[in-house]
Amino acid sequence: xxxxxxxxxxxxxxxxxxxxxxxxxxxxxxxxxxxxxxxxxxxxxxxxxxxxxxxxxxxxxxxxxxxxxxxxxxxxxxxxxxxxxxxxxxxxxxxxx
Length: 97
Description:
The protein is of the alpha+beta class. The protein is built from five helices and three strands, in the order ααβααββα. The protein is 55% helix and 14% strand. The protein has a three-stranded antiparallel β-sheet with strand order 1-3-2. Strand 2 and strand 3 (63-68) form a beta hairpin. The N and C termini lie far apart (31 Å).
C-alpha cells in the first residue's frame, strides 16, 4: 500500500525501517546490507530525508550515523501509517475453532 504514496522503493524501505524502529541508528553501509540496496542510492535518500527533517545524523569518527528525528512534525502519523500498512500486507492467519 505504501508503494502507491511513496514511489521510490529505496526511500520506502528506509522510511519503514526508521518509522518501525525509531531508536534504530546506522550508517549507509549497514543500512545497505540490511535492506539489500545499493549504498549510493541509500545515501541519496538518507540525505533527502535528513533535509526534510525526518532523519538526523551525527559524525562518529569518519562515519555518518543516521537516526529518526522523533520531533519531526508528522512522525507519529507516519509511524502509524507504516505500522498499519505492514499489518494489511501480512498474510492473515486462518482461525479454526
